[in-house]
Structure formats: C-alpha cells, structure tokens
Specification:
This protein has about 210 residues and is an all-alpha fold. The protein has a single domain, classed as Rhomboid-like (Rhomboid-like fold). It is built from 11 helices and 2 strands. Helix 6 packs parallel to helix 8 and helix 8 packs antiparallel against helix 9. The radius of gyration is 18 Å and the shape is globular. The termini are far apart.
Length: about 210
C-alpha cells in the first residue's frame, strides 16, 4: 500500500512540475497516435451515439482526439499551437488539465442531452475554443487590452456560427461538416473552468 501511495504521489508531483508546453505536447501526441491508426482508429474512437448507447462510453473522450483526415488533424494541431502561443502561459499544467476535463465534459454532455440527432463527431476544435477563452480570461489580469480583444473575437465567431453557420472555407479546409455546437459547448466549458479556477485563487477574507 505504501508503494502504491508513493507512486501516486510521484505522478502528482511530476504533473505539478510539468510546464504548460508539456501538456500541449501530450495533447498533440495523443492526437497523432489516434491519427496513426487511420480509418480504423477513427471508427473505434469517434463519438458514435448508437455505439455509446451500447456501452462504448470511452467515445465521449476519445472523439476529441480523432480527426476526419490528415488535413483536419494538421489544422487542429496548428490551432493548438497558436492557442498555446497566445494564452498557454496563463495557466499551469494541472490547471490546463482541469480546463480540458471540464471543456470535454461540457461538449460530451451537450452532444448527448441537446444534440440528440447528431449520430457521430470527431475533432478537437471545440476543446480549442474552450482553451482559448479560459486562457484569455486569465490573461485579462496581465494583458487586459489584448486579452479582451481575443475574448471578443472568439465570442464574435461563436455568435456568427450560431446565427449564420460555419466560417467561409472552414468546411472545405477540414474536409467535412463543421459542428458549430461543439465550439459553443467547448467554449462554455472553458469559461466555466476559468471562473472556477479564478474563485479558488481569490484570497478568503479573514473573520
């Protein structure tokens, strides 16, 4: 039992010592590994409502690391790299893990409870919207103007997608239909996680 506890403490310690770039590397490697399995991997790991109803619940998570094609994968990896350049420094690796978990949970819950007619989904774009907003919100503390502009651009994009549809050229670039609700759910999850972290960081008033 003591050995197990020491191993768990060692893992937690390594996570705390990791930099935000380490976590970005984990996301990239996970996506590349899934992509290496090609069509077979995508079919096994994509969000598939009927398969999930049959008990394949891992698809709630793995769908966000699977992609339609190599071009779709490359597009999302470039988006992740840009996100990390802009806002990665604002959170630690453990905080980014928390933001990712919350963002993915909001997306999967949104798909399952709200988009009941959507049978399948793959891609990381929803998570990227959550990460970008979570970082930009935190960045307001240090670079207010730039961070507010970044938040505004992402929110404007989300509004456009909800009322007009995907941005021109986005479907041809990704190689398939763009699920705009994935962006919305991921963004809501990212904002929620950012506010939870912000409240935890606030000093408690003494009595």
């Amino acid at each position: 039992m003591g050995l197990v506890n020491r191993r768990e403490q060692g893992l937690i310690s390594r996570i705390k010592q990791a930099t935000y770039w380490h976590f970005a590397a984990v996301l990239i490697i996970a996506s590349l590994l899934v992509g290496a399995f090609g069509d077979e991997g995508r079919e096994l790991l994509k969000y598939d409502r009927l398969a999930i109803e049959g008990g394949e619940v891992w698809r709630f998570v793995t769908a966000h690391f699977a992609h339609l094609s190599n071009s779709h994968l490359l597009l999302n990896m470039l988006g992740l790299f840009l996100t990390w350049l802009l806002v990665g420094r604002y959170h630690s690796a453990p905080q980014w893990i928390f933001i990712t978990v919350v963002s993915l949970a909001f997306q999967s819950a949104g798909f399952w409870f709200l988009d009941t007619n959507m049978l399948w989904y793959v891609g990381m774009s929803g998570l990227l919207h959550g990460l970008m907003l979570a970082g930009a919100i935190k960045g307001i503390d240090t670079l207010r103007t730039e961070s507010v502009i970044l938040c505004g651009l992402v929110i404007a994009k989300l509004i456009y997608e909800q009322f007009v549809g995907p941005l021109p050229g986005s479907e041809s670039t990704s190689g398939g239909d763009v699920v705009v609700n994935a962006h919305l759910y991921g963004a809501i999850g990212g904002v929620t996680a950012a506010f939870i972290l912000g409240r935890r960081a606030q000093p408690r008033a003494s009595i």
